Amino acid sequence: MTNIHIRFRHLQCFLAIAQHRTVGAAASALAITQPALSKTLGELEDDLDARLFERTRKGMLLTRAGEIFLEHAAASVASLRSGIESIKNSGVGVTVGILPTVAERLMPRATMMFKQRLPEIPVRIVALEHAPLLNMLRLGELDFVVGRLANPESMIGLTFEQLYVEPLVIAVYSNHALTNMKRFRVPLILDYPCVVPHHNTIIGQEVERFLQSHGIAKLRNYVEATTSVAFARRYVAEANAVWFVARGIVETDLSQKVMSALPVNTEAMTGPVGITSRTGRPVQRQALELIAAIRETVAAMNHRAI
């Protein structure tokens, strides 16, 4: 152990390769040459006496040793960056990743509450898909992420606090023919285009099980769109489509009767919504204040729903 001389550049190079999967892309991201990157990786593997990557047609894939090292390397870099930011005091403010299900109501209301209490503290909102948000969280670029629970394999090194459970609805615009059916049955959606969550997400798999329970083995005409809300909203309007969507995303549309939820029990399609943070890493003070505002907002929303 005393002969190991791992430097920050070793961790940077390792994490860049793990993220980008190719030496070329990782070198470009770090603004160094490929030979320099390969040399640095070689030094790290020599120090650890272990191969961290396998070269395959799909790119550089982590070995078992690499997977183990990834969790600790990401945590170390995040901790170091957090310390540097604290010393420089340039990290004042909160940077939070959000997913579409909380972008419509929860986060605007919680952010308003936070800014009423701490108007001088900036809040930076980052809206991306689950995978890049969780990568940014591991690297310390985000304080926390708010949204649906990710797949188990994506939660290594992270912890999840559930705030509430949210159902999906099957939504259409209010002038859709399905809203005029005397007796709606789920198989009727096969006559229309559908927008569904990506099949490799937890909620996407729940949609598949729901459809199968209604005798639909596979949709004939569908588009997968989980985080592309603007696209999905426009496509549903233009294509007269049926949208399997988290209720929180279309809550305003439903309350204003711009959209309608088709009359079918969708309790089988629910997912936990909450706060994802790094395991074993304390959340900075301003971020804790925003988390408190989020919890209070959820409690107020639940109270109004009773």
From TrEMBL:
Cellular component GO terms, alphabetical: cytosol
Keyword set for this entry? DNA-binding, Transcription, Transcription regulation
A GO MF term: DNA binding
Q: What Pfam family does this protein match (any one)?
A: HTH_1
Q: What SUPFAM superfamilies does its record include?
A: Periplasmic binding protein-like II (SSF53850), Winged helix' DNA-binding domain (SSF46785)
Q: Which domain of life is it from?
A: Bacteria
**Signal peptide boundaries:** none
What's an example GO BP annotation here? positive regulation of DNA-templated transcription
Which family, according to UniProt?
Answer: Belongs to the LysR transcriptional regulatory family.
What's this protein's name? Pca operon transcription factor PcaQ
The species this protein belongs to is: Pseudorhodoplanes sinuspersici
**Lineage in the entry?**
Bacteria, Pseudomonadati, Pseudomonadota, Alphaproteobacteria, Hyphomicrobiales
